[in-house]
Please model this.
Amino acid sequence: MNLTNELVAAHLEEIGVLMRLAGENDFRASAFDRAARTIESLDSPVANLIEQQKLTDVKGIGKSIAEDIYALAETGEIPVLSDLRERVPDDLKEWLRISGLGPKKIYKIHHELGITTLDELKEKCADGSVAGLSGMGKKSAEKILKSIEWLEQFGERCLLNEADEIASALYQDLKQLSGVEEISVAGSLRRWKETIGDIDILIGADSDHASAIFDVFTQNEHVVEVLGRGDTKSSVRTDQGRQVDLRIVSPKEFPAALMYFTGSKEHNVVMRQRARDRNLSLNEYGLFKLDSGGNTDFDQPVKYDSEKDIYAELDLAWVPPELREDRGEFAWFEKNDSISLLEHDDIRGVLHAHSTWSDGKYSVEQMARACIERGYTYLGLTDHSQTAAYAGGLKPDDVKRQWDEVDQINEKLSEEGHVFTIFKGIESDILSNGNLDYDDKLLEGFDFVIASIHSGLEMSRDKMMARFKAAIEHPATRIVGHPTGRLLLQRGGSDIDLNQLIEWAAEHNTAIEINANPRRLDLDWRWGQKARDCGLQTAICPDAHTTKGIDDIRYGVQIARKGWFEKQRVLSTYTAKELKDWFNS
DNA sequence: GCCGTTTTCGGCCCGACTGTTTTCAGTCG
Model:
């Protein structure tokens, strides 16, 4: 059995979840969580470690979990998981998504009322059975019902752009209030995760202003429900179904609080452990010495003025928020003062955009002018190829007419004094046999080809990889488009071996795009370390179908940063001349 | 379940808030 890292991680993670639901020791469950994340972020195949019987060399994998993985490799299953699956109904996992319900309460409700489905849970909340359980009450039952309603209407998470819009509006609203000395978005939005659950906003203000600030927050026009309100924290639900948490701390404590509320949880756990190792305690108010009993001594604070100071106390350089995922940042920032990551201003041009020739909404000229307005110096036009009939893909004759039009517009723009180039590209379908979508002669005429899969996404892993291999080996292919084909919150991607794909692409001097459309963000940032090790090139591709779609580049830049991409490995930072040379290299 | 140059056993990150309680467990981030 060929075990992938993702598959092993998924098994371990499921054990962790089911253990909690089965009411078992939380630390034990956490050990499986940690092991899952470790395996997932390995940049070599776990299969090698299995073969060499070296699993326990990996930190966080002990004898017991190693044996579980060996069992998985040999028999295809893990006894402890099989056992858990029998004991814990699958439906209960769904309940974890309900806010206010954790493993303990789920365990209690399931056991004492003998129910497993979401519908049964709704019934028992409505008829008073849940309220009758010890430790639960009428309010708990109401909260559960309400939370299920929200969940069914809006889902658990939203796309990055939606969260970004909600947060920006609230940020603007709060920023100007009197007493607000510091304000920042925190949480997963500050870390630019690809999807967002709750939105976190942090304010530094003296406590006598807090009440007035919370008043404005809870009375914002988009707020439909106030979920909670204390002296330092308030949570609301907006009309788009998102929960927003606002924390107010004193300006002095702002840096520590910002670090704390930015997370990730995993990053914070390591930070606190590092503090403990240095006889300190880290919390949202700062760093403190430990007293003789090993407890936080709030009378002995360590002075700091910024996040940077706090990292420095723990022998680390400042970690950009995007990298705070406990995926290698500690090793890096122990040894290095900083990291050179792609910046927004580095982007010089737009690669991957559609026009009215296929399924875009604007003409080539309109798209080009929109790029110019935004200060970009080239447009890599890539309409769909002929097989994408649903998207108005170009027949060979269309291609030649489009080339003529591009020549004319290039000339016209040049006459107007613009230093701007439209590159003749195509987003060629990778057919099921791995061929590109035109004959070689026509393909040669393009400045560059983005090769993407749009159909047959469900093929087996082996067949998908054979398709990609053939496409990458084709001399015309310069960029691989949205490799997994996932649509965030809608459908998962194809089953492919991304580690292998990255190796192949890097070997053939072919780039893999970071599709910047917030529904895709594919290549996923989690493969950033592998890409870095292989020297893979990428491009920030808005996949724009409208002029406004060009602005999605900003999400792509953030994801590239999150994937540890530096400027030199991003084609979109090249000048038109450099890019042309690279296309022909 | 994992880990350890103070430890092979006994820890494992920490505080706010809520709802249920009369002192705290569970959830959340």
In short: Residues 396-415 of chain A form the longest helix (20 residues). Chain A has a mean pLDDT of 92. The two ends of chain A are 39 Å apart (CA to CA). Chain A has 24 helices and 18 strands.
